[in-house]
Amino acid sequence: MIPAMMLALSYTPDPVFAKRGLDLVDKVRATYYLPESKLYADKIGVTQPAFNWGVGVWMSALNAAARVDKKYDAALREYADATWVYWNDKGPVPGYDVLPGPKPVDRYYDDNAWMVLDLVDAYEHLGDKKYLEWAKLSLNYVLSGEDSKLGGGIYWRESDRGDSKNTCSNAPSTAAALAVWEHTKDGKLLAKTREIYGWTYRTLRDPEDGLMWDAIKHDGKIDKMKWSYNTALMIRTAAALYKATGRQVYKRQALEFEAAAVKHWFDPATGAIKDGGRFAHLLAESFLHRQDMAPNGDSKAVVASKRAMEWLEANGKKDGWYSAEWYKPKFDKQPELIDQASVARGYLMMSLR
Known about the structure:
Elements: H1 15-32, E1 33-34, E2 39-40, H2 52-68, H3 73-82, E3 87-88, E4 95-96, H4 109-126, H5 129-143, E5 164-166, H6 167-184, H7 187-204, E6 215-217, E7 222-223, H8 228-245, H9 248-265, H10 277-293, H11 300-315, E8 317-318, E9 321-322, H12 337-351
Antiparallel strand pairs: 1-2, 3-4, 5-6, 6-7, 8-9
């Protein structure tokens, strides 16, 4: 096994959080699994496989499950291999598509960034270099989404190039590039990471509250919507850049982002994270990356995240399934894979602290 480079995790899992996460992984595997394709359904009761965003979150949950208990290695390997059917080799640059082919090209740069992170995780845990090579291919697609318009940055969707450049495509892309860099030590890749991170920070950070806006449109107008995962991936990348370069500016920015996120996203009355789980689990995980940058016991943000998950357990669970929203429970008749995978990933990553 290759040691994890991006996040130094304890391997003595918290038994309560680990059990909750693994129980949910088992429930998802029993309910969503599509045996013919070895993929997983997008929702309960349908046969369509998950959209690629959900694929990425579910693979991240399996990665975390395998870190907690090696008996999940086989499930992780099977799914990582099965997802190759999403790969679309049509030009101009091949990449993972939103759904398995054959179909017209519909590729997203952010979807591919999540796949890079998952594949590097799988490589680090399973030791199969194939996954690192796939990660490099996917990263090549991600970086092809950059151009000089608006001063730089990566577009969100290939078919909408020219429409918007989003934090959700740029921040995960920098984290993905660093994940690959950890294993290649390619100086050009590190320089590109710093360049894209810097553009994202300058262009899409709200100077008033220190959080990340959603996107810049082709005409230069800012979409000021805020999702927790956008700031989360900036925390993660800033922390990793500090570890990679030793530059104090990245440490300062990681700490500033963390403080702003805690102030904005945690409900002072309940302790819940005020966002959907598909975003919130990445916020909680980002605090682990920040803490890994400067470890000294559990940070206030990590403690707050654990409390938020306890609130979710007490208020956002019904019949073994979890609410898609982590602060105002709402239970769907057909829970989506991405929402259940987000909870599983959240519990399992927190269990490793």
